[in-house]
Specification:
CATH topology of chain C: MetI-like fold
Oligomer: heterotrimer
Low-confidence stretches of chain C: none
Number of helices of chain C: 12
CATH architecture of chain A: Orthogonal Bundle
Radius of gyration of chain A: 22 Å
CATH superfamily of chain C: MetI-like
Number of strands of chain A: 0
Shape of chain C: globular
Mean pLDDT of chain C: 80
Structural class of chain A: mainly alpha
Chains: A mainly alpha (281), B alpha+beta (542), C mainly alpha (306)
Mean pLDDT of chain A: 82
Largest interface: A-C, 57 and 62 residues
CATH architecture of chain C: Orthogonal Bundle
Helix content of chain A: over 70%
Strand content of chain C: under 5%
CATH topology of chain A: MetI-like fold
Shape of chain A: elongated
Chain lengths: 281, 542, 306
């Protein structure tokens, strides 16, 4: 089946376009120097809000930093936070959702209520409290506190979607048949039920990825997210939106990069889902 | 609310003669104001006040509302010298025993006359430790304060009233200070010293339940309705007021969580006056409001402080080099659109005794000399400025950091702490890794002493930089005991000169009140404390 | 069915106390100095500090304070805010605003989101599909705060279509509700689209078509009903995000609702208020999700609750 999915993917442009975008984005994250000649930390108010020109295609932001350089250099932390936090959230969601939906019973009750508690507590609030603690302990200003916080708080929607897909799949005739044929729980879960849950989970998770990158922005804005001197799209978007009425270019570029990256992830998610979905082949 | 303003033009002339003796009052009904007059409504944007009991009010929003509801003993003239308002006279023989005579004829909004007791009652309440009033320290200079505030906060005080307060007759009382203090009349302008009516208290001597939501004061305006928390505080003219009467009938204090929203409301004429324009809006304010965007002096003082106990910054020449590497004028121009003033002295220009440029060469922008001095004194290769993310300081702190990086050839990090409340404990505990930090100061009353003591004296309430100079402490203490203001100022200035030598902080900017108002109102002015002058403001066309 | 509901209600009690404990512990642990937070830039007077410490038992241990708080809750006393207003009266003022706002936003999400999702799913690969995809992406790519300010600026200040901020009436809530709804709109559209596409491919849909039922009827009755299951789950869940989004939107539009109150309480480290509001939010959330679970049974007859 895996090779089948790969064969299906290989032929589709819907797969290759986002892959191409993500490769570029990834390259920017790994080696920003190759893309931007200017130093993102070379800022001076002398050229505050200078419009796009030959010297700086994207213009300068309020602090007089090169917008293009900052956007390129911001890729790394934004991408890392988004991807790692989504991976963490996806893992938790898969575990909780499948256990809850497949095994049912008291475990389902416990896990569902746990999901309810985490879901009911607004992400922003919990993040403020958790990150506040992390920084108070002095346990670092890197991306890990942010990744951990977003992952720990952001799995709930996906978990519920996984659970409901598993719940529905469990009732399906082919699953019942497999069980009667003596297939073990593990085999049924992996071969028959998980593929059903992948599609909706991927949809939710790709979107979660976008919201994570955006949430990182909110946290940076509140002073508890990524900290200086790290550069992130979110931080720059926030800085620019306050002075949108003076200049649009500092806002539009990081926003565009953010939107395009998220778009790439979603398209990729769509393509993979279609490939893995046995019914669409 | 603003819709009604269309009919406001007919107003004013009718008003003046409304019977003074009638019990217009706390019932909140339409009372005795003529119909036309009530139409003159002005809305002013504020934040939600934390408290409105004068002895417990510390924020500017609360102060603005109290300015409408109360009359202080003194107000300040053009030169920021105190002039009697509700006081008839404030006299002293030796700056220690002060006699305050009140003007007769003032009444609270419930008809109760304002007497010596109104003041003594409120002050004793505020000074009594267990009442937990936030302005309690303002009574510390009055004799007998210690008995009301035992050092162990759990102990019961040995007295309930200040021994230094003595009623002489219905309109006269005496205040005995524990030490001579020549600026006392100026201090009396602060809202901690406002009176309260008997109705404010219940049988047990606490503030009566619900009083704070429907405050009864002695000012030009009275509450029109109960305090609608997070929405508005609506007041109307108090017709039996014996001071100068306001020119509008009603004021709605509209409460905003975020001043950017208030700015937008002002832009669409939904809000009449916004006393403080948010920093990012300053750049377009002139374009948006034309000549309805104004400035007035304020006492705000922004500075960069050093952890003087940190070996990185313990060398005074490093501190001076950093100061010289900052182009204050450029930051004022770019970040604040010219609405603040570059600071080169340690006290605000609004104060009697202020001298320009006391900081000398150390506050002049000179990147070349700065770099040289920095190198000579082995300044650190990496510096950090910590700021609180909740006060809108990000832009200028980052800009300052960029200037240091360029001009000194160092790495500079602008580090955010979520809240000032997170930063202060770190400063108190001298937690390593904070680096330089930004702080600001706004005065309570116009006296140099209100800057020098808390900011720079040993153990001062806002001295977070570990600065301690016995000579400085002595000069300030001597100054505050001088019989005359002029003598005091001489000593204060000598003390300020020591600051220029020691540079515990870098003066950066003096603030201004930047305010905007809609076309619906005119004669808008904002005083030294950031409060809109409610007696002058008029509705346009009247 | 009745047993199921009773069991869930009992669980809810446990969850409620679990939540208060978790949130209380978080606030307790994170607490820097609530009294200093209250005072802002000014130093706090010793008298004020002693008074508040005494009033809120700040000098006691965690369990003492938690027990004291829960004890108050059980007596129906929600306690006081750090500024000494009864929390019950604060909430009484705030709830109506948030209910109206969230209700309006939900209407936007359901009507526009499900509608657009079905259309995009039916005409998969068409122009409409591409357009909705693009639009949802823009919405996802832009943080709430930026979206809020942009919407306020363009529609409120520039075009003057809506009031810039809350004026107390329902009309001034429309713009914030639209923007709040936008957040969930993106996911709703995509989820509806995905499930509609899948169900269109399912055997029953093909059978129904083969039997000669009109496409409209197949989509409108059979496919839609089955497609709504994950969407309804999501919307139940999404109420939580709406509440959280309300924190930002209510701030921008100056709506004195629950989010507004919560944001300030967090900022001022007002422990009692935060715990109470969050616990209440969780209860609302639980009740809604119980209703969602019951809806399952209605939408999907295969699911039975014992």
């Amino acid at each position: 089946m895996r090779s089948g999915a790969w064969r299906a993917l290989r032929r589709r442009p819907v797969f290759w376009v986002p892959v191409a975008i993500l490769v570029v984005v990834l390259a920017m994250a790994v080696a920003p120097r190759l893309f931007a000649g200017a130093d993102p930390a070379d800022c001076t108010l002398d050229r505050s809000m200078a419009p796009p020109s030959g010297a700086a295609w994207f213009g300068y932001d309020f602090q007089g930093c090169d917008v293009f350089a900052r956007t390129v250099y911001g890729t790394r932390s934004s991408l890392l936070v988004g991807v790692l936090a989504t991976a963490l959230a996806g893992l938790i969601a898969a575990g909780v959702g499948m256990a809850s939906g497949y095994l049912g019973g008291w475990l389902d009750s416990v896990l569902s209520r746990l999901t309810d508690i985490v879901l009911g507590i607004p992400l922003l609030l919990a993040a403020i409290v958790l990150l506040h603690r992390a920084t108070a302990n002095g346990s670092g200003h890197g991306i890990w506190p942010v990744v951990g916080t977003l992952g720990i708080l952001g799995w709930t929607t996906a978990a519920r979607v996984v659970r409901s897909s598993v719940l529905a799949a469990r009732q399906q005739d082919y699953v019942q048949a497999a069980r009667m044929l003596g297939a073990g729980h593990g085999r049924i879960l992996v071969r028959h039920i998980a593929p059903n849950a992948v599609a909706p989970a991927v949809v939710v998770l790709t979107i979660t990825l976008g919201t994570f990158i955006a949430s990182e922005a909110t946290l940076s804005f509140l002073g508890i997210g990524l900290r200086a001197p790290s550069i992130s799209w979110g931080g720059d978007i926030f800085a620019a939106q306050a002075r949108l009425r003076q200049a649009w270019w500092p806002l539009i570029w990081p926003s565009t990069f953010l939107a395009v990256t998220v778009l790439a992830f979603i398209m990729l998610g769509d393509a993979i889902r279609d490939a893995f979905d046995p019914r669409s082949r | 609310m603003h819709v009604r303003r269309a009919t406001a033009r007919i107003v004013v002339a009718v008003v003046a003669v409304v019977a003074a003796g009638t019990l217009a009052a706390c019932t909140g009904g339409p009372a005795t104001v003529s119909a036309a007059d009530t139409a003159a409504v002005v809305s002013i944007g504020i934040g939600e006040p934390t408290h409105l009991i004068p002895t417990n009010t510390t924020d500017s929003s609360g102060a603005q509302v109290l300015a409408a509801l109360f009359t202080p003993l003194v107000t300040f003239d053009r030169n920021n010298k105190p002039v009697p308002a509700q006081a008839d006279s404030i006299t002293a023989t030796d700056s220690r025993v002060w006699t305050i005579r009140l003007k007769g004829g003032y009444t609270f909004h419930n008809g109760e006359p304002v007497t010596s007791d109104s003041y003594l009652r409120a002050w004793n309440f505020g000074a009594y430790g267990p009442n937990g009033q936030d302005n309690n320290p303002y009574f510390a200079k009055i004799s007998g304060y210690a008995a009301l505030n035992p050092t162990d906060p759990k102990a019961t005080p040995t007295a309930t009233t200040l021994s230094g307060l003595r009623r002489i007759d219905a309109l006269t009382f005496q205040v005995v200070l524990s030490a001579p203090y020549s600026d006392f009349p100026a201090a009396l302008g602060y809202l901690a010293f406002l009176p309260l009516p008997a109705a404010a208290f219940d049988a047990t001597g606490h503030i009566a339940r619900g009083f704070e939501d429907q405050l009864v004061g002695d000012g030009p305006f009275q509450m029109r309705d109960v305090w609608a928390h997070d929405q508005s505080i609506e007041v109307q003219r108090y017709d039996s007021y014996s001071g100068t009467k306001p020119k509008v009938g009603k004021i709605d204090f509209k409460i905003y969580q975020d001043l950017t929203t208030a700015y937008s409301d002002a832009l669409t004429n939904t809000l009449d006056v916004l006393p403080g324009v948010p920093t990012p809006n300053l750049a377009t304010a002139a374009k948006d409001f034309g000549n309805r965007y104004r400035h007035s002096p304020s006492s705000a003082f922004q500075y960069l402080a050093f952890p003087t106990y940190d070996p990185d910054y313990s060398n005074v020449n490093v501190r001076k080099a950093i100061s010289m590497a900052i182009d204050r004028d450029q930051i004022v121009k770019s970040v604040f659109a010219g609405s603040q003033i570059a600071a080169r002295s340690f006290v605000s220009p609004v104060l009697p005794g202020y001298r320009a440029n006391t900081c000398g060469a150390a506050c002049q922008y000179n990147p070349v000399a700065a770099k040289e001095l920095y190198k000579q004194s082995n300044g650190p290769a990496k510096v950090q400025i910590t700021y609180n993310a909740d006060g809108g300081h990000k832009e200028w702190v980052e800009a300052t950091c960029n200037q240091l990086a360029r001009n000194l050839g160092v790495k500079c990090v602008a580090q955010a702490e979520a809240k000032l409340a997170d930063l202060l404990p770190k400063l108190q505990n001298k937690t390593p890794g904070v680096g330089m930090f930004r702080l600001g100061w706004v005065m309570d009353y116009p006296s140099m002493e209100d800057y020098l003591t808390p900011l720079y004296s040993t153990g001062g309430s806002a001295n977070y930089y570990g600065y301690s100079n016995p000579q400085f402490d002595q000069l300030v203490a001597q100054g505050s005991q001088q019989p005359t203001g002029a003598a005091a100022i001489r000593l204060y200035q000598e003390a300020e000169d020591l600051l220029a030598r020691d540079m515990p902080v870098i003066p950066l900017r003096f603030g201004q009140n930047d305010f905007v108002y809609s076309a619906n109102v005119s004669n808008v002015s904002v005083d030294l404390f950031g409060d809109v002058n409610l007696l002058d403001i008029t509705v346009s066309g009247t | 069915m009745v047993r199921f509901v009773v069991r869930r209600l009992l669980q809810m009690v446990i969850v409620f106390f679990g939540t208060t404990l978790v949130v209380y512990a978080m606030m307790f642990g994170a607490q820097g100095d609530p009294i200093q937070a209250l005072a802002g830039e000014k130093p706090v007077s010793a008298a004020q500090r002693a008074y508040l410490t005494e009033h809120f038992h700040l000098d006691h241990g965690f369990w003492y304070r938690y027990a004291d708080y829960v004890g108050g809750l059980l007596r129906g006393d929600l306690g006081d805010t750090l500024t000494l207003r009864p929390i019950s009266s604060v909430l009484a003022g705030a709830w109506p605003y948030t209910l109206k706002l969230a209700g309006l936003a939900m209407v936007v999400v359901v009507v526009v989101g499900v509608g657009a999702g079905v259309l995009a799913g039916v005409r998969r690969g068409g122009l409409f599909d591409a357009a909705t995809l693009a639009l949802t992406l823009v919405v996802i790519g832009v943080p709430v705060v930026v979206l809020g300010f942009l919407g306020q600026y363009l529609l409120g200040i520039r075009l003057r279509l809506f009031p810039v901020a809350n004026e107390g009436d329902l009309y001034s809530l429309i713009l914030p509700a639209l923007l709040l709804g936008m957040l969930s709109l993106a996911t709703t559209v995509r989820l509806t689209r995905t499930t509609v596409v899948e169900n269109l491919r399912a055997d029953y849909a093909k059978t129904a078509r083969a039997k000669g039922l009109s496409r409209t009827r197949v989509v409108g009755v059979h496919v839609l009903r089955n497609s709504l299951i994950p969407v309804v789950t999501f919307l139940g869940v999404e109420l939580g995000s709406l509440m959280a989004g309300a924190v930002v939107i209510e701030n921008i539009f100056n709506i004195p609702g629950v989010g507004f109150t919560l944001a300030r309480a967090v900022r001022t480290e007002d422990g009692p208020t935060v715990v109470t509001i969050v616990s209440l939010l969780v209860i609302v959330f639980l009740v809604v999700n119980l209703a969602v679970d019951l809806l399952y049974a209605v939408l999907d007859p295969r699911i039975r609750y014992a």
